[in-house]
Amino acid sequence: MAYTFQVTIDSADPHTLADWWADALGWEVEHSDEEFIRSMVTAGHATMEDTTTHRGTLVWKSGAGIRHPEGLERAPRVLFQLVPEPKTVKNRVHLDVRTGDDDPRAVVERLIAKGAKHLHEGSQGPSVWTTLADPEGNELCISH
User: Fold this and answer.
1) How many other CB atoms sit within 10 Å of the CB of residue 51?
2) Those residues with Cβ within 8 angstroms of residue 71's Cβ, 6 or more apart along the chain or in another chain
């Protein structure tokens, strides 16, 4: 049996980081169902302390998800979950972002302008990549 999965990234500010990654990948932030959230609070399954407002929308405080515009059949969901501690060491897992027809150098420059930090350049045989850190320090590689 083959299993499906989502990628989960710990975050101090999951909604802001989800916005950053959705922009970086050309993906979409999942819609927040405010009516459902309010119904969960009204029914006593959650409290308003479990929520926050992000860009004028009521959202769950604990996390935010992003999806490929072609849906989960195209790529797994990425969830950014709230954690209390900051990132302190190198990630053991990271995303390798392939730019397709877009110039990887231009993508790197765009992401740096939006808050990424350049970490280093890498190569192995004909493969070359740039390793960046997102605004919370999570590593990602950009290549063709």
Assistant:
1) 19
2) none
